[in-house]
Amino acid sequence: MAAKYRITHAKVGNQDGFRLPRAFSKDYPQLANASGYIEVLSDNTLLVRLDTDNVDNADETEGIMMSLFLDFLMKEAMKNPNTLVPYTEEMSNEMDDLLKDVMLD
Question: What pLDDT digit, counting tens, does each position of 55-99 carry?
């Protein structure tokens, strides 16, 4: 079973954040000074993604993130089917207009 750590709200100066218990740093010293991003999946679910130097895992990590996101969408659709909206040609045209000058790297 994966380790779980309780987090608490922390305010330092004018910034808000979360405080991890000291046990986290002791158990995972390689992550103690890591930085990254928090993605809000729902009102009570956050996904923490840490920046790492290991480029080889980038594709795998992106695949996991996409899988988690799609799982979340499916659960929401199953719980609230009345919130689903059909994708129309008008929406497609609007999306094309929004993306027409976007260049991909």
Answer: 445 556 677 788 888 888 888 888 999 999 999 999 999 999 999
CA dihedral 23, 47, 59, 53 (to 10 degrees): -40
Does residue 7 contact residue 19 with C-beta atoms inside 8 Å?
yes
Which is it for the CA torsion 14, 16, 17, 22, positive or negative?
positive
Question: What does the block give as tokens for 21?
Answer: 């218990």
Indicate whether this model's pTM tops 0.70.
Answer: no
Q: Which single residue is written with the structure tokens 């000291």?
A: 22
Torsion angle of the four alpha carbons 36, 66, 30, 2, in this order, in degrees rounded to the nearest 10: 130
Place of tokens 């309780």: 6
Q: pLDDT tens across 5-22, in order?
A: 898 988 877 788 888 888
Contact 67, 60 (CB under 8 A): no
Dihedral sign computed on CA atoms, order 23, 27, 29, 35: negative
Amino acid at site 44: N
